[in-house]
Design brief:
The chain is mostly helical. The chain has seven helices and two strands, in the order H-E-E-H-H-H-H-H-H. Helix 2 packs antiparallel against helix 3. The protein starts with a helix and ends with a helix. The mean pLDDT is about 90.
């Protein structure tokens, strides 16, 4: 039991260190137009599968807080959707709902992959572990993208349209373009990374 706790603590610290490293470098948040593609969700997804949804959700919360702090410090046209301290361009004041966008999807990144992986393991058995890991990685990434983009639409549709200089009724088309464009690329990268890293870690943990 003590050995298991030490191993979990060590791995959690390692994943946290990787997240901080990604946040401190351009690799964590990659600007693509008005949004940032991210790789910071990958350690959260892997932690969810290896260490369980509780630790995964905790690291996801940290990811959300880092995202909120970064949006407050490094101001971009879209900072107001992730930070309540940045003024909405239409209202000229911050909005507490930005906290929901910054935190809730990131918590779920640390929960969804675990249950997707466990469910697929039961369905596909041992021989399909790499496939299960790949799909679980994609599911974690898409959870983030789909929730963030839809919450932006629900809470900040008009402000988002103003930033993009498009009509309000065209906003969801833009959001779908992001989900099926950069969102699917992020998901594929997360799936490959999850499959590669988790395959090794799961083998080592069995030993």
């Amino acid at each position: 039991m003590k050995q298991t706790n030490v191993r979990s603590f060590t791995l959690t610290a390692m994943f946290l260190a990787i997240m901080i490293l990604l946040a401190a470098t351009p690799l964590g948040f990659i600007p693509i137009g008005p949004i940032n593609a991210t790789t910071m969700h990958i350690p959260v997804i892997i932690a969810s599968i290896i260490l369980g949804p509780r630790i995964g959700a905790g690291l996801g919360t940290i990811f959300g807080v880092i995202s909120m702090i970064r949006s407050t410090v490094i101001i971009t046209p879209m900072s107001f959707v992730f930070s309540p301290f940045i003024a909405n361009p239409l209202t000229n004041h911050g909005d507490w709902r930005a906290v929901i966008i910054a935190i809730i999807p990131r918590i779920l990144i640390g929960v969804v992959p675990y249950y997707v992986y466990k469910g697929l393991r039961k369905l596909l058995k041992e021989k399909a572990i790499p496939v299960s890991l790949f799909i679980a990685g994609m599911a974690g990434s898409l959870t983030n993208t789909i929730l963030v983009m839809n919450l932006i639409f629900i809470f900040f549709k008009d402000s988002y349209a103003d930033v993009l200089q498009v009509a309000a009724n065209a906003v969801y088309s833009v959001i779908l373009g992001i989900i099926f464009g950069s969102g699917l690329v992020e998901a594929a990268v997360a799936g490959i990374a999850t499959m590669a890293v988790c395959t090794v870690l799961l083998r080592l943990m069995k030993k």
